Amino acid sequence: MTSAVETWTHNTIAVNGITLHYVTQGEGPLMLMLHGFPEFWYSWRHQIPEFAQDYKVVAVDMRGYNDSDKPQDLSAYQIQELIQDIEGIITGLGYESCVLVGHDWGGAIAWYFAYSYPQLVQKLIVLNIPHPAKFGEGLRSNPQQVFKSSYAFFFQLPLVPELLIQFNDYQAIETAFQSMAVNKNAFSPADITAYKNAAAKPGALTAMLNYYRKTLWELVSDKEWNLLEVPTLMIWGEDDTALGKELTYGTESYVRNLQIRYIPNCSHWVQQEQPERVNQYMRAFLSESLEK
């Protein structure tokens, strides 16, 4: 599945009534990585060995994905269940806190988790996912963002999205990566096959879509947000066709200690398309925070 010999190991952990699969490498403080749609732990393949030099890196398959359990009930994908999964991983691994890293849906869950359990998050790093307040604002007031998010509304339909994604050997998954990427060489045929195989596992596709069918509405609800005290780094590929850059503007109103690093000529798949730049920004943020 990978182009090089795997340097990490695979394991499972029982949390919140389910079993989650993860890969891990390194020793030290915990760095927990949460992937998005339609991915799995593999989307962090360029970050795992890099940060394993200083951390115990754990890249999890979120519930419903790849080799983790795939509860079929829609209620299993409400935000509170997803938050409890993350709390269970951190404490179940014997840690009192972590550096939490999330992209796309993983980033959305990371935002919510940092607000719910700030004492468990030393630093927060989110990639190409806006603060929930900014995303909800965008969907309520920006017709352009509504158009960009139209696929998410399509995903609300029963069965039809599954059939479309499965059609022609999961061609839609290949298109999602290749058509959105600025650097078309960022994804090898083996990478695309890995994502297709993960989505094709029994029960996975419906479970993956259930994030949109259940959690999306919680994510965009008009609620009050306090000022987040957790130091936060936002990394943003500027050529994201699904989420407009303007969704990042004003995030400092919700986060006391915020850094934003924009990466030009880079798509939504930022940590896979520009891994060296992403790793550089992450390491600088972590080092600066440690020095303080």
Give the topology, please.
Blueprint: E1 9-15, E2 18-25, E3 30-34, H1 48-51, E4 56-60, H2 79-92, E5 98-103, H3 105-116, E6 121-127, H4 132-141, H5 143-148, H6 150-154, H7 160-180, H8 189-199, H9 204-219, E7 232-237, E8 258-263, H10 270-273, H11 275-291
Parallel strand pairs: 3-4, 3-5, 5-6, 6-7, 7-8
Antiparallel strand pairs: 1-2, 2-4
Description of the structure:
- The chain is α/β, with parallel strands linked by helices.
- It is 41% helix and 17% strand.
- It has eleven helices and eight strands.
- Strands 1-2-4-3-5-6-7-8 form an eight-stranded mixed sheet, sandwiched between helices.
- Strand 1 and strand 2 form a beta hairpin.
- It starts with 8 loop residues before the first strand and ends with a helix.
Provide tags for this entry.
eight-stranded mixed beta sheet; Alpha/beta hydrolase; 292 residues; hydrolase activity; alpha/beta; AB_hydrolase_fold
Q: What is the average of the pLDDT values? A: 95
Cα separation of the termini: 40 Å
Major β-sheet profile: 8 strands, mixed
Principal-axis shape equals globular
Low-confidence segments, given as residue ranges, are: none
What is the N-to-C order of secondary-structure elements (H for helix, E for strand)?
A: EEEHEHEHEHHHHHHEEHH
| Count of DSSP H/I helices | 11
Q: Evaluate the radius of gyration.
A: 18 Å
> Roughly how much helix do the residues carry, as a percent range?
40-55%
Structural class: alpha/beta
Strand content: 15-25%
Strand order, largest beta sheet: 1-2-4-3-5-6-7-8
Domain AB hydrolase-1: 29-273
Protein name: Alpha/beta hydrolase
Organism: Laspinema olomoucense D3b
Pfam family, one: Abhydrolase_1
